[in-house]
Amino acid sequence: SQAKAYRAALLHCLADPRDVGIEQSHEYFEDGLLVVEDGRVARVGHAAELLPTLAAGTEVIEYPDALITPGFIDTHIHYPQVGVIGSYGTQLLDWLETYTFPNEGRFSDMAHAREQAELFLGELLRNGTTTALVFGTVHKQSVDAFFEACEKRNLRMIAGKVLMDRNAPEFLTDTAESGYADSRELIERWHGKGRLHYAVTPRFAPTSTPEQLTLAGKLFAEFPDLYMHTHISENKQEVEWVKELFPERKGYLDVYDHHGLIGPRSVFAHGVHLCDEECRRLGETGSAVSFCPTSNLFLGSGLFDLAKVEGFGVRVGLGTDVGGGTSFSQLASLNEAYKVLQLQGQKLDAFKALYLATLGGARALYLDDRIGNLQPGKEADFVVLDYKATPLIDYRLSQATTLQEKLFALMILGDDRAVKETYAAGVSVHRKG
Ligand code: GUN
Ligand code: FE
């Protein structure tokens, strides 16, 4: 089909700054051009070099005072929790009982699920997030509603039905067998359809019996390229509870390990209280952890030790964890990530930050051959960030002398207001204003 070109400043990551140093970690074109054809990146480079090579009549869309980056990747979020963001006064286990479980109960109603899926995807795209790893509810129709809404917009998304057969209200529980059968049905219906992937989704160890975890592990091994998505070591009381429920296991991660739930495409949200041995095991198995700073602060869960977890070679992505998290914006997540690391004597420079929100997330999800940066052949999921989003952002960025300073200030001050336009597979899926 007809190519289209987008002209703006352009920045994307090529590697983890931790592995190659800041200079080699990214590619930047002050006056850049992104050429998109058939939903994929055809070419990327300096406008002056590429413009003369375009076929006659190619449309060139210009964005002055803007920065094109890859779409953001959210490695942990709950679509049925939009209704509980900003719920007052509790930490994890009380928060689940008081706010979250009652709200998730409403998703037995397909009409409600459809409405919420639309609201949720609208918010993700308004915030520049083009791929997310998403929790549904225990109801299989919650996942149908979500995937239907994603399919309409041709988004690369991963989701699954929650498995939960104990320690939850009756209206939200399945059984080991029904959870297995319902998940299987959803996998057959959705996994690999368009740009969609299925994730086997045990909520967390306390809400599944060993029988359910055994069947989850069996399912995870039965289909190629499935994901496994759960929570781990978010809150100290939760960690103690897991020890009581599974006294025969070495620790929290060992519960998942024992049931065949770790390895490539396994993503564990939080990991705030992991021990060294658990980090080592996550690293050697190619598992990933989702760092969810706004949630860890809001729920008072603790401070994620990025240096330690990465030091064991674990893949780390960034997550919002809405509704425990307080914003859909990955810029807002990075702002809070910076502060979480500051409190531990660690730094988060702007390039590492961009890496976590884009290519690092893609690597955590084993999707870096398709998304995460704008190299030719990648799917054209990108965002246009507005350097003049607000008077403050405009002024502060005008004071910055280097790209690094400018990007850092944008990530500290920016949120959905800084997202001018969002593209998925080369098609505009959100435009501000
Ligand atoms: N642990 C188990 N369920 C949840 C949830 O819904 N949100 C968060 N943040 N942690 C959990
Ligand atoms: Fe969560």
From TrEMBL:
It comes from the Bacteria. Keywords: Hydrolase, Metal-binding, Zinc. It catalyses: guanine + H2O + H(+) = xanthine + NH4(+). Binds 1 zinc ion per subunit. Its EC number is 3.5.4.3. Its cofactor is Zn(2+). Pfam families: Amidohydro_1. InterPro entries: Amidohydro-rel, Guanine_deaminase, Metal-dep_hydrolase_composite, Metal_Hydrolase, Metallo-dep_hydrolases. Pathway: Purine metabolism; guanine degradation; xanthine from guanine: step 1/1. Belongs to the metallo-dependent hydrolases superfamily. ATZ/TRZ family. This is Guanine deaminase. It comes from Stutzerimonas decontaminans. The gene is guaD.
